[in-house]
Structure formats: C-alpha cells, structure tokens
Amino acid sequence: MKSYAGKILRVDLSRGEVTEEETREEWLSKYYGQKGLGIRYLLEGIDPSIDPLSPENEIALTPGIFGGTMVPSCGKLSITSKSPATGTISDGSVGGTIGAEIKYAGYDAIIVKGKANHLVYLYITPDKTEIKDAEFLQGKGTFQTEFMLKKELKDEEVKILSIGPAGENLVKFACITSELYRQQGRGGIGAVMGSKNLKAIAVKGGKDIAVPDMPSFLSSLREIIKESVLIPPNEFLLSDGTWSYGDWMQEGGILPTRNFQTGISPTYERFHSELKDKFKKSNKACVGCPLACGNYIEVDGIVFEGPEYESLNMTGNNCQIPDLKAIVQFNRSLDDLGLDSISTGNIIAFVMEMTERGIHDFGISFGDTENYLKLPEKIAYRRGIDNDLAEGVRFLSEKYGGKDFAMHVKGLEIPAYEPRGAWGMGLNYATSDRGACHMRAFTPAYEVIEKTIEPYTFKGKARLVIDLQHYNAVKFSIGICDFWGLNLELLAKLLNMATGSNADSEELTKAGERIYNLGRIFNVMAGFRRKEDTLPERLFTDPLPEGPAKGKVLPRKEFEAALSEYYHLRGWSEEGVPSKQKLEEIGVDKQAIEKFQKYLSSHSV
Ligand code: SF4
After folding, report:
1. Reduced to 3 states, what is the DSSP secondary structure of residue 80?
2. What distances in angstroms separate CA 92 from CA 52, 62, 175, 278, 527, one per listed residue?
3. Which one of 84, 346, 353, 407 has the minimum C-beta count within 10 Å?
C-alpha cells in the first residue's frame, strides 16, 4: 500500500537479534498506523498482565501513514508500551523529525523487547541496524547524549531519541526526548527504555515514500494548507503556541493551582500569553508543520523551547511558583534529566500540600523556589526521600497518606485542566485508556473555550466524551497532530490521496471506535474494571473556593450514572468489559477477539 514502508523492524535486546518482517497489511486497513498499529502489535506481542519493567514488555515506535510525506502537521512519532505508572496500555507521541526519519529508514514500526546486558543504543539505517555500546553515555542528560551521539556517529543530521538519568533509574514518569525539547512525556515509557538498558535510538534514513499521484497530491496539499491549516482559528498556535490555553483556563476557573485546591491563580497575569512576546525569539516546528507551535524564548539569559501550557501551569501555578525564570530553569532541567513535566509538577504540588497540612514533612512548601529548583535532579537520581517521589503521586499517598488529594487516575498524574469546572473532563480522565489524559477527549474546548456546552452537568457528556475519544483515536492512528482540528471528511481525503484507499468519514468513525476498544481489551486483560475508572476524592468532596466554578464539585451519584451511560453507549458491560458482539460489529480483527475471549473465559468475567 502506498505511503507505507511495508516493513517492520524487530529488536530483541536479550538475544542481541535484529530481524525484519513485512508489515501486517490486514492490520493497516483496520488500525492504520501510530496509536492503532502500536496497540495492535503490543496486544499480539505481550501478555497484558506482565510487569511493565520486565524484559518481556515491548516498545513500539510507529511513525504513521503520512510520516515522511508533505502532509502538514503529521510529524509526530507514536510510542506505545505497557506503562509502569499505570499498568495500562500507553501510547503517546513525540514531535520533531524522528518519525519521518524512521519512514525514510524503511519502517512502519520498530518493536523493541528484551534487556541488554549493558547500556546500549540502536543505530538504524536502511542497510542495517546495529546494537552498539552506550556505556560512555551512562548517567548523561538527554542534551549531552544527543551531542555525544552525533559526534560518535560523525553525523550532525542523525535523528535521536534518548532517555536521561531518570529513565536509566526507572523513575515512573521518565520521558523520552528528541531534539532536546521534544518529549514523549506521559506514562513513564522512558523507564521502560531504561529497564531494557536502552539509552538511545539513532536513525538515519535515505529511502523515499511513494504516493499514488504526486502532482495532484502536492497541488491538493497546497490548497488544504491554505483552506484548512493556515486559517484564523489556528493563528494563535503560530503567535502564542499553547500559552493561550492558560488565559482560557484562568478565565473559566479551571486552572489547577496549589495542587488543585483552586482553579484561579492570583499571579496568573505574570504568565498571560501576551507577555511571552517579551521573551519570544522565534518559532519552532515539527517537520513539515506550518503551524510551528513551538516557542523559542530567552529569559534572563536562559534559552529554551517552551514551556508549553501544561508544563508552565503544572510546574508554575500548581506549585505556586510565580517566577518565569525559575519555571524555565526547572523545565530545562526536566527535559535534560528526562522527566515528564506534568507528573513532576503534580507530584511536587502534592508533597507541598502534605508538608503544609502537617501530614508529612517533605521539606518543601508552596512557593519555596529554592528547594523546588533542587528537586528534579534529586528525583532523577533517586536521592534520599526523593527516591519515593520518583514512584509517583499514587505511591506517595499510599505510603505517607493524603489519598484524598493525590491527583491521579490509575496512577497517572492529572494534567492542567480542573474537572470540577468542566465535568466532561472528569468523565474523560476516568475512562481514558492511559489514566488521566487530556488528549483523549478535550471537552474544555466546548465547555470553557467555545462555551457551546454547559460545563457543570453530566448530561450529554457520555456521548461527547465517546465521540471525541473515537475522533482522536483515529486521528492519532492515521497520524495528525492534536492541534490541527481537521474534520473526518478531510482526514479521509488525505488518507485516500496518500494510500490509494477509498475510506470515508463513516469508516473513520468506526475505526476510531475499533481502535479505542482495542486499548480497552488490553486494559481489561491487564486487570482494569469499573472500580479503576474513577477520580480522586477531592473532586467529589471539595468545592472549588472561587471563580466561575465556585462551589462546584462533581456529584458522585451523577458521575456514576454518567459512567454507566458511557459503558451502555459503548456496548460494554456494567464492569466496563466490551462484548464479543460489539467487537465483531466494529470490525476488531478475529485474532484479537479470540485472544480476548480466551482471557475472559479463563478469568470468569
Ligand atoms: S502543531 Fe506544533 S506540535 Fe503539532 S505538528 Fe505542528 S509544530 Fe508539531
């Protein structure tokens, strides 16, 4: 099929073996690429109940159908594995240029399993893949790792994914970095790489990608960029990047502040999107993306790409650190050490509240910039009590107390959207396939930004969340960035132009449901049921103290009713288990259904 490379690369680090095989064509037409293909290969390759940090776990890198073509905003690489933070399936993406390079090297997927007996890196080219010694990179940050690897390979243009000391030390929220400031952040997949003694993956391409009709492909793309990408609703990405989200969330009263104690920040004006012009030096884009949402900034001599909204808020307002220079310094060290900024900000805010409430003294309170700046290194190297911080907020609350205000779902720390002021987001966090993730169904777009849907109700939210989860599942599988809100008609047109297929929006809607159910199959087989589809107690019991959502909590009974409605609409049981009939109806492949049915019959579900 056009636009696909036709091959996948398998690396077994325990055996030191590298093999190639043909991409499973029957899966491409059902699951496409990126998210869908990654989950499908994982479901085939591993037992979902395994320890995520064991050699049996696999990491699938899937660049997507459009990777390497001139389709706009398609430069992301999806990375899928079983998460050590949650125990669920976890797919996430990293921007930059590495995704396209994997396609140019000739692969639709790279799947790594096993564990090397010492620290190694992979060097992948179209001709061969080598497992090379990486002991000279041990303990190095991701910045230095990229520089040293380029020097070692005598190639400035080689594309690199790497982990920092956090990944090597199996920190549960270790991320994977590319090009210094691009991260696959969530779910601790950096620790999975660390558990395999895999420090980095360097890729050098050279092959072409074919599309059915190049002249018409290019002229259609020119038109699409003009009509659908570079249009007024997307202009804020070029001018502000994601900083505008902070303005909207503050205005809607859902800006997490002081460990989600309130949704309004008293110092927000210091981070208003208009202020970034004082610091902004230039834009940065992923390969081929005209939206170029990355901001290069300079604050008091510190040059940095970012911080994007999530990082800015979770490590700023949520920890009551109103100092942009400190936040930039902090985030720069997170990127270098290989730590996810959302989880790190959430965890530090939790220990600050624990200290202030006198439940346990972690030696840091809200607004303590001096100790805040010391924490990333202590966490990444697991020094002293900060060894416990490296296990995440769920672990901390189980060991030291504070479960009611440990802001996570299934072990994944909640990102920068407060659900008491956007109830759909609560249902989304509870049902997201990788724990508290804002990128599965971003309901604040309607509840807070556009204000087209009532935020303080669950009425209609089950349908809304499901539809958005399906839309994103298929969009992230075909391989388009979150920030380009194209409709499914246009997505189908792009798919057909690139592959020669004949899909329509109806088929893509069904594919979204198919892919979302595939993730649920994995999670049910990993032991997840209704009781895990829940939210932190604070959201049910502590009213927001101020702002537009003042006095709001999520009413527990209504939340449970919305969850039941969500399962019912999906054709899942009251326990959240997909039925065989539903899986057949939406076209999940026979082998996956059989594997699932075998699991269900042996577990009396
Ligand atoms: S919108 Fe931003 S994150 Fe998305 S592809 Fe473009 S530059 Fe990358």
Report:
1. strand
2. 16, 10, 10, 32, 21
3. 353
CA distances from 255 to 231, 344, 547, 592 (A): 27, 17, 10, 40
Q: Is the Cβ atom of 75 under 6 angstroms away from ligand 1?
A: yes
CA 202: distance to chain centroid? Answer: 21
Q: Which of 178, 181, 483, 484 to mutate to test the pocket of ligand 1 (most atoms within 8 A of CB)?
A: 483
Residue 456 has pLDDT above 80, yes or no: yes
Find the helix or strand (DSSP H, E) in which 473 lies.
Answer: helix 461-478
The best mutation among 225, 243, 291, 478 to test binding of ligand 1, ranked by most ligand atoms within 8 Å of the C-beta, falls on 291
State both tokens at 100. 């396209």
What are 123's strand-pairing partners?
Answer: 130, 202
Counting atoms of ligand 1 from 1, which one is nearest the CA of 484? 1
| pLDDT digit string, tens, across residues 119-150 | 999 999 999 999 999 999 999 999 999 999 99
**Cβ 513 vs Cβ 470: under 8 Å:** yes
**Residue 229 burial (CB count, 10 A):** 18
Rounded-to-integer distance, Cα 245 and Cα 248, Å:
5
Indicate whether residue 286 lines ligand 1 (CB < 6 A). yes
> Is this structure's pTM higher than 0.85?
yes
168 alpha-carbon distance from chain centroid: 20
* Cβ partners under 8 Å of residue 229, min gap 6: 72, 73, 290, 291, 484
As given in the structure block, the two tokens for residue 454 are 């009532």
Q: What are phi and psi of 362, to 5 degrees?
A: -95, 5
Query: In angstroms, what is the span from residue 484 Cα to ligand 1's centroid?
Result: 8
Give residue 389's region: left, alpha or beta (phi > 0; psi -120 to 50).
Answer: alpha
- The SS3 of residue 238 is helix
Q: Using DSSP bridges, classify how beta strands 59-62 and 77-82 pair: parallel, antiparallel or unpaired.
A: antiparallel
